[in-house]
Amino acid sequence: MIEWKRNLLMVVLSQFFSMMGFAFAMPFAPYYIQQLGITEPNELKMWVALFTAAAPLTLAVAAPIWGALGDRYGRRIMMLRANFGGMLVLSLMGLAPNVQLLIVLRLLQGTLTGTVSAAQTFVSVQSPPHRSGMVLGTLSAAVFSGSMCGAFLGGLFAEWFGYRMAFLCSGVLLLTSALLVLLGTREKFVRPMEEDSDSMEDRVRMFWGKIGPAIPILALMTIMGFVLQFDGAWLPLLVQEIHGSLKGAAFWAGSLQATGGIAGFLAGPIIGRIADRIAPPRIGKIAAFGTGLMMIVVALAHGLVQLFTGRFGAAFCAGGLDPVLMIWLAKTTPAESRGFIFGWAVTAKALGWMAAPLASGAVACIFGLRAVFFTAAAFLFLLIPLIALIVRYLPSGPPPAANKEIPVLRVENQGD
Asked: Are 344 and 214 in contact (CB under 8 A)?
């Protein structure tokens, strides 16, 4: 098998187990927080919002650092760091005695993990440029399918064995993901030589030379991260409200997450292939409109059938937004600084992820739970003119650095 295809296969399998691990317990955090003694409704909403915002806060700071280190020392080692870090943190979450320590561990999660961005950087650099849509779309399918299986099986597992054991099993799944990367991938890494000038002016010029062309897309990613994360923390509580009790809610919440995973699994490769032929901004507008319509269906749901239908449609359409923006970013940035740019892409999205639960938590406390989903729909519709506006600020062609030869020092980092 061609090396880049073998790497893609192993990374896809790794991401499947990685996302399965995160989804095995994380969607049920609002129920776990209740088990830790937080049951008053407004206090519960506050802790759910803090839990959801904590990881994106530290992820926003850490991601560019990890991305820059990946460009210097290799992208494979970044995948290993993210998966082994996730294994450690999620296992410890299952042992947390109170909600305060759970939040601390959530902050540590954002610092150490980031498996999706690490995998995206690795496969986008290792694969042919004209296959970037297919590659990132296939990886997106692995992310959604892993989330689907993890949420469904995790919901059953949590009902039978408890939320603590679900977190411990998450750690085992992250360990499996790490071993797949360690034993199944190879990276022929070419390390850039040290720059001759160390002056601050030159460093600032280099920084803006790399990130400048990507700033419009990064700004859109921040907004997109805010919009797509706006309702995520509150879906388990909506399921609990419709179901009528906490008992059995984990099964239905897991099934709902699995339904969204199926939709994302179908959307990823389809939209990825289309994005190799059609301009990503056009796909993004259609996806935002469809997601907004389906979010209204979720907001109006008073039965599980309507809720599941709306969630499937919203997840299918939303499944096109993140991959399309990553494909768009890959097509406008040079491969030699891809880890640096993708690291800042994670920061951009994480800023939105951090702000979203805090803002939606305020909406939930003031206007009620369902108002969160109506507000999310309004934001999704606003994405459409924003995408059109940002297209105007993008360069018309690929960045000059993409075709520019740079001095390199050859360093190979191969798997076992």
From this structure: yes
